[in-house]
Amino acid sequence: SLIIAGTDTTIAGTIDGAATGEGILQITGAGTTISGEVGLGTTSLSAIDVNATTTFSDATEAAAYTVDADTTFTGAVLANTSTAIATSGTDVTYSAASTTGTTTLASGTTLTSAGVLTTGDLTVTSGKLYLSENANASDNILLAGTGELHIGKAVASGETINTGSTSDDNSFPTTAKVYLPSNLSSGETILWVDSG
User: How far are the Cα atoms of 7, 32, 157, 188 from residue 185, in angstroms, in the given order?
Assistant: First the structure.
């Protein structure tokens, strides 16, 4: 394991696993910046565990991500198995198109995706999910409890916001809310496709 505990620390260079799916990067020091690539391809990590505010400036890859503090991923994120945003009050931003595996947002958390988001099942339990682009590919986006889905105004009429394989009537309970783009006019539509 590599533990970054210092406050306002910048780590330059590449962080790699010894082999595919090996090694854990844990961040406990607030204000950490990781400026290089983390675990891409044959050197992907087993886990990335973020416990303090962090910025990743380049692409990252691990089997599993657990994020418990405000984090910005500027480069692409590749979670080969799962992503958990687990602590209330945590805001996570993906600036690039990312693939996050089975993804869960705990109560009081927020995920903002500026690029196309590809996931397995994505469960938002009384948290908030912001999708800025069309053509996302999540197997099923489930809004549990008072979960919210916010669709950005870059998504235009006639575009497909998500193509899923297991979406069903239970994906959007009456307690949840979906916010459509503010510039969507009367009679315009956006599409949600169940390919399963």
Answer: 48, 43, 9, 6
CA distance 68 to 84: 8
* pLDDT tens, residue by residue, 39-93: 999 999 999 999 999 999 999 999 999 999 999 999 999 999 999 999 999 999 9
pLDDT band at 167 (very low <50, low <70, confident <90, very high): confident
pTM value > 0.85: yes
Tokens of 142: 């489930």
Which DSSP category does 65 fall into? Answer: E
CA angle 164/60/166 to nearest 5° reads 10
Report d(CA 161, CA 46) in Å as an integer: 31
Place of tokens 């962080």: 15
CA dist 161 and 178 (Å) reads 12
What token pair was written down for 109?
Answer: 């958390």
